[in-house]
Amino acid sequence: MKNTIITVILVLVASITMNAQEISKNALGLRLGDSGGFGGEISYQARLSTSHRLELDLGWRDGKNFDGFKLTGLHQWVMPIENRFNWYLGLGGGVGSYDFNNYNNNNDNYKDTFVFIAGDIGVEYNFDIPLLISLDFRP
Fold it and tell me: Which residues span the domain enclosing 27?
């Protein structure tokens, strides 16, 4: 149940927006959720046109048994729903690397570097203040 809630509640916060009908020129925020085992991510969005934007997300994890990073890039299409609500979908990919040391199993060490494809679909709300909140799903 906890994983379901975390997966459903992916929130992008702290985006700077100037007009409810436009995509922000630049936005910086946080992406919260499972993120494929990497925890939260720092997110950057850049407007490409009136209905297109680029999103870059950097997730990393540093702990006793696990170190890793994941960089994702998505091209997103943004379409208005009503007032300050928009929906969007994106397609892209990324690269990542991890190092896992299993202390419980003869100190086995697993390292890997990988590439992946990614997509997302979501809705967002632009407040009158410089804040944007979104809820999305990234398989």
Answer: 2-137
AA identity, residue 99: D
Closest CA to 116 of 72, 60, 69: 72
| Domains contained in the chain, number | 1
- State the Cα–Cα distance between residues 33 and 1, nearest whole angstrom: 13
Per-residue pLDDT of the chain (139 residues; tens, 9 = 90+): 444 443 433 333 323 333 335 677 888 899 887 656 677 889 999 999 999 999 999 998 887 777 889 999 999 999 999 888 999 999 999 999 988 877 666 767 788 899 999 999 999 998 888 888 999 998 7
CATH number of the domain within which 61 lies: 2.40.160
